[in-house]
Amino acid sequence: MLFAVIIAIAAVVIIGASAFVLLRDRNDGLLIEGRSPSEVEPAPPAGDTLVDEAPVEAPPIVEDAPRPSFRERLATARSALGGYLGSVFSSGKISGDTWDELEEALIRADVGVATSTSIIDAVREKVAAGEIEDTAELPALVKAEIVERLSGFDRSLSTDVVAAGGEPGPAVWLFVGVNGVGKTTTIGKLASREAADGRSLVLAAGDTFRAAAAEQLTMWAERSEVDVVRGAEGADPSSVVFDAVERANARGAEIVMADTAGRLQNKTNLMEELSKVRRVAEKGAGTVTETLLVIDATTGQNGMSQAATFAEAVDVTGVVLTKLDGSAKGGIVVAIHSELGVPVKLVGLGEGINDLVDFDATEFVDALFD
Ligand SMILES: Nc1nc2c(ncn2[C@@H]2O[C@H](COP(=O)(O)OP(=O)(O)OP(=O)(O)O)[C@@H](O)[C@H]2O)c(=O)[nH]1
Ligand SMILES: [Mg+2]
Predict the structure, then answer these.
(1) DSSP element (H, E) containing 203
(2) Pocket of ligand 1, candidates 210, 233, 306, 351: which has the most ligand atoms within 8 Å of its Cβ, to mutate?
(3) For the purposes of burial, counting CB atoms within 10 Å of the CB of 366, is it exposed (0-12), middle (13-18) or buried (19 or more)?
(4) What is the largest CA-CA distance in the chain?
(5) 259 forms bridges with which residues in the sheet?
(6) Position in ligand 1 atom list of the atom nearest CA 178
(7) What is the Å distance from ligand 2's center to 109 Cα?
């Protein structure tokens, strides 16, 4: 009898301990996600093997967060620039050293050698003309020179197929760039924004290199309830884009946003493939009205060398500069405009669906300098 009671007590203790461990592990799972339980995406239905097959990290869901401001998200870039320029601006009377220090500071902030030199030459002329004498007055002059280099660009995203030399039909926006810069995420964010504005869209999963890429785009498409056209893994990306244009045309959709696989700019065959995608996008009823080069701002001057090669392969109409919320120093914005002559049209300020904003030169420069 006593033996039976001991067994029963032991069983209760073991079951209780197991239940405690199980519950604690579940809670840990939620905490590791870093989100509250209500924000965690619902589990896929049983039997859905997509999640197992595709190791795609779902972008974080911050659907309700307001669109961020440059000021708020450029804090890291601002403090980097402040660190480089602070001592130059506070050194007192302008001397020969001022120019060397200013040049070094601008180059360290990713403005690029050629652009830094041209900014300094312009500022020096004003100082020589007696406009200012003290370094404390330099920031205003440097800011004005930067704003001038960012001015006069058309940053709108065009759907004007006739202006682009085409016939009435879907406008195609092509997204290109090296691996991991944020092409697919940008399309996801932009699709959400354009769909909310009442525009009809079709997404083309032109990254056929990895099955996971189409999955990732499909997840974004589902969030915005827009149509997506996919091909088999390894399929010709041109044919996927062609099919998406056909579908858009049949449905009277206004825009096709075409994703492409990330590629290194020195891979000639892959750059040729991109030129082909662009050509085939216009074989049917579509007209490419935007070719957007996506650049990761944290890659600094490396992004500039990518840009030149991409611009040769496809006629780049604008740049999407992503990850400006990260460790980017921001000066690359100036280099892109003055060295490539192409405007930054959109800026990525985070991973969430609302973290894509139109580029605004004055707001950007104020956020960097103030
Ligand atoms: N912080 C931050 N992260 C971003 C931003 N844009 C994209 N990302 C992240 O960058 C990573 C890569 O994004 P993707 O959209 O998959 O990049 P991709 O260019 O499509 O990559 P490939 O298809 O592999 O060439 C993801 O973790 C995104 O969440 C941004 O503006 N800020
Ligand atoms: Mg991608």
Answers:
(1) strand 201-206
(2) 351
(3) middle
(4) 106
(5) 205
(6) 25
(7) 28
Residue owning the nearest CA to atom 17 of ligand 1: 182
Atom in ligand 1 nearest the alpha carbon of residue 207: 23
Enter the pTM of the model.
0.83
Sketch out the chain's domains with CATH numbers: 70-150 (1.20.120.140), 171-316 (3.40.50.300)
Residue 346 CA to ligand 1 center (angstroms) comes to: 14
- Determine the atom of ligand 1 nearest the C-alpha atom of 180: 21
- Could you give the CA distance from residue 6 to residue 12 in angstroms, rounded to a whole number? 10
User: Ligand 1, atom 13: nearest CA belongs to which residue?
Assistant: 182
Full pLDDT tens readout for the chain, 370 residues? 555 555 555 555 455 444 443 333 333 322 222 223 233 333 333 333 223 333 455 455 455 677 788 888 888 888 888 888 888 888 888 888 999 999 999 999 999 999 999 999 999 999 999 888 888 889 999 999 999 999 999 999 999 999 999 999 999 999 999 999 999 999 999 999 999 999 999 999 999 998 899 999 999 999 999 999 999 999 999 999 999 999 999 999 999 999 999 998 888 899 999 999 999 999 999 999 999 999 999 998 888 888 989 998 999 999 999 999 988 888 999 999 999 999 999 999 999 999 999 999 999 999 888 7
Q: Which atom of ligand 1 is nearest to the CA of 348?
A: 31
Q: Cβ distance 171 to 158 under 8 Å?
A: yes
- Spatial distance between the Cα atoms of 197 and 93, rounded to a whole number of angstroms: 53
Report d(CA 54, CA 205) in Å as an integer. Answer: 15
Q: Which of 302, 297, 301 is nearest to 113 (CA)?
A: 301
Q: How far is CA 270 from CA 83, 122, 212, 266, in A?
A: 40, 41, 19, 9
Q: How far is the CA of 304 from the centre of ligand 1 (A)?
A: 18
CA–centroid distance, 148 to ligand 2, in Å, is 34
Q: Where are the alpha helices (DSSP H) in the chain?
A: 2-33, 50-53, 70-73, 75-89, 96-108, 113-128, 138-150, 183-196, 211-224, 237-251, 268-280, 301-313, 332-335, 361-369
